[in-house]
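During the first year of the project, the team set up a workflow for recording each protein of interest as an amino acid sequence followed immediately by a discrete structure-token representation. This format lets reviewers and collaborators read both layers of information side by side without switching files. As required by the reporting guidelines, we include two representative entries from the current panel. The first entry is reproduced here exactly as it appears in our internal archive.
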Amino acid sequence: MSINLPDLIQYGGDWEKYEEQLYEIFKKDFLDSSPYLKKDLPVKIIKEPKFKGKEWSFWHLTSKGKIESEREPDLRKCERLAWIKPIIESFPDCEIKAWPVQRGREVRVCLCYGDWEYLVVLKKVLSGFMLITTHPIEYQNTKLKLKKQYESYLKSKKAKTAFEGGIATPSTHGR
């Protein structure tokens, strides 16, 4: 099965207009309705704290930087904003690889589209999942690191039970 992703959202030179175009897509995909992983597990966003009247998640999906007040727009993330919901809703798809990553007490789920091209990171919460961030994968060493994590997951005994709620196992991946 193949995912039909929307075209990249091109920047036309007017940042304010582009930001509003992006925010309209964000509202449609995450505020007006929530995506569902495997049709029954809701994926929510982080709404607070707001910055310039827009939700925390919006900024993490369209910008980069470690210090919140100093984040800068990331055009590669912006261009792909409309990809997030279809990737989440298309799982499990043969073009999407998924695996858990333990981060302290949190379990995060990585959804990787295509040939290690684009990463969506979710956090497991009681009511489903929280959308944490996304990244176009630009560097070969990052692709290799993610591929190694995924292959390690597939080889582990944890693979059969890692995704509570039936999200994925090696036997169902790719169907």
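The second entry, processed by the same pipeline in the following quarter, appears below.
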Amino acid sequence: MNGLTAEQILADAYPCQNVCEGFKLFYFHPYDDRRREVWDWLEQANDVRIIHLIRDNIVRSHISQTIALRDGVWGSRNGALKKQPIEVDPHRLELIYYTTLQHHQRVRQYAKSHPYFELSYRQLIGDTKGVGRMLLKFLDLPDAPMSSPMTRQNPEPLSELVSNYDELCEVFGDSEIGQALRDDD
């Protein structure tokens, strides 16, 4: 945060008097030692509306992020890219899975005193118009068409994306993680 407070960063980023302002904050942001400050500010700023966009399948999310880190590609506008399968460390996958669940709970806790709207990518993709209308209503904005040029970056089944897929299925069996591995949606 380069020595700035959360309020200063927002004021610099949004100097005009817009009706609606927003920002994207990942669970692990910011990267420097002032991590708590932005989260403490968010918890106290009761007038901030929180839209919590989550991935239903944390395993798929981790695999997609791992592929993006390896390939240096963080978005796709032209459909799926040809890629080589990755090997997934089962211990790291388990750590990421349960850490992400803790992050979800932490945001829900922070949001208790806020207007809060939680949705998943699956819901958004499944009913873009309906969910878009709900989001605009939540933000007290007039109805308007919403779209994105982005496409799903890794639509392939996890069994094609992960070179040690069978090993992971054996390690995780019928656990939550094992079920997420077999959930190809």
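For the second entry, the following points were noted during internal review. The first strand starts at residue 50 and ends at 54. Residues 1-45 form one domain. Both points are flagged for discussion at the upcoming steering committee meeting.
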